[in-house]
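Please, structure for the following, as tokens.
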Amino acid sequence: MVRKVTIYTRAAEYSNDFRVDDGLLLCIYCNHSVKWEKKSSIKDHIQGVTHCAKKREYENKQKTNGNVLQQRTIASTILNANSKNELIEDLIHAFAVADIPLE
């Protein structure tokens, strides 16, 4: 039986190194998209010198700071901005209906 491989199955296989954002397989440490269709391209990236160095750097930062930010794609950033704008508009509408001044 042939198992269908998707970006999500690849991310699950390598959950310590990759995440899925907006249809892209992104390396957690390098903030770099990796082609997920072939397992060899993922293994080549993981075994690369740059990935190993950035992984060590990431882990050291996490030990000292406890929190390291992840880069987002443009689509997810726009989605977050739109949801924030919607929340603000709903709040303004609720204040207007309740006759609460905004100043």
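The first strand starts at residue 18 and ends at 21. The helical segments are 7-13, 39-47, 49-65, 74-97.
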